[in-house]
Task: structure prediction
Amino acid sequence: MTAERFDVAIIGGGCAGLSLATRLAEADLSGRRVVVLEPRTSYTRDRTWCGWSFGTHRFSSCVDRSWRQWSVRHGGEEHVHTSVRHAYEHIPADRFYETALDAVDGASHVELRKGVRAERLEPLDGATRIESDQGPLLADLVVDTRPELHEPRGPALLQHFVGLEIVTAGDAFDPGRVTLMDFDVDQTDGIHFMYVLPFSRRRALVESTILSPTLLPEKVYAARATDYVQRVHDAEIEGIRQVEAGAIPMSDSRSARAGLPGVVRAGAAAGAVRPSTGYAFHGIQRQTDRLTRAIAAGRVPRERPVRSHVDSWLDRVFLGVISRFPERAPELFARMASSLDAETFARFMMERQGWPDRSRVVLSMPKLPFTREALRLARS
Ligand SMILES: Cc1cc2nc3c(=O)[nH]c(=O)nc-3n(C[C@H](O)[C@H](O)[C@H](O)COP(=O)(O)OP(=O)(O)OC[C@H]3O[C@@H](n4cnc5c(N)ncnc54)[C@H](O)[C@@H]3O)c2cc1C
Result:
């Protein structure tokens, strides 16, 4: 079969693929054509993206709620941060998808092909041949955002969660404050915390999140979330609007797939998800800004590590300690929250930290387990 040829093929129309497609749709590509291949046939609100704002980005208009206050709770104590500079913002996936699909629809040089699953990639005639379940394509540049099988480097925990958007019969939540982590919950199945995003006094996304190597049946997380609302917020549940679930690898990993010339990866496939926190959305925006500049300038973008060696190493040490001593994890997260001010905390969580921030985080941690883990990693 003759393969249709494109200048750029983006494999995967999720967060990274559509972030890039939107920017390319709005860029002057001097007649070059872009295709996005995505297996799903329709988009739904399959997740929500949160993170701290550091100025505007292409999807700032999709933010439907933001908070200036957040807290971490452990051992009956609540550490509250109030930030004047960095709001914690919420983007529902359906708004993001709608904005991206509108941008792509409005550009004649970018095409989204839904219901297409890419399979094998191989170099051919100075381009890449993409085998798909709908036939082959050729592309001069491929941006591959398919989730990959990774070989974890170091300890491999998963951040697994189920979130319920819960509506209560009476007032139950403080709409001004996000609960980032409430560790004062059952810790028998792993490092467990509740995450509460209050949209109003009577509606919140309540997520039971566990850091451990093993997934649990979905109903377990759901039961914990509803029990939490009834017990801690002393509220009667009127209904559940949305459910979201995920399992994010918390490991510094390298790709198991060999790199090909003319193929760069983006998004989670390129390590955009921060192992110790699971945040990726804002990193993906920066990554796709950089890819867009290179593509618009006619350069072949290079795949660059998302974070510095130092930050990857610090993450590995932290993950090593909490994997070895899961019972200490709540205290470690609480120490971090109590010893950092709101702005430093936001910078650290969003990977905007400088050396003074890194030192503050390192100094807030207990020395012995961290030194031992650092030495162990250095020897391995
Ligand atoms: C439920 C959930 C909530 C999250 N919340 C946050 C948050 O609050 N803040 C934050 O910063 N991060 C969050 N993350 C982490 C991260 O931001 C997301 O996982 C983000 O979607 C990663 O973007 P991506 O493009 O790499 O992957 P995805 O968005 O998963 O996109 C990958 C795309 O590849 C497609 N695909 C798969 N196989 C093929 C194939 N063979 N051919 C073609 N296409 C294929 C998939 O259908 C998908 O559309 C969350 C993750 C999950 C799962």
Q: What stands out?
A: Residues 281-296 form the longest helix (16 residues).
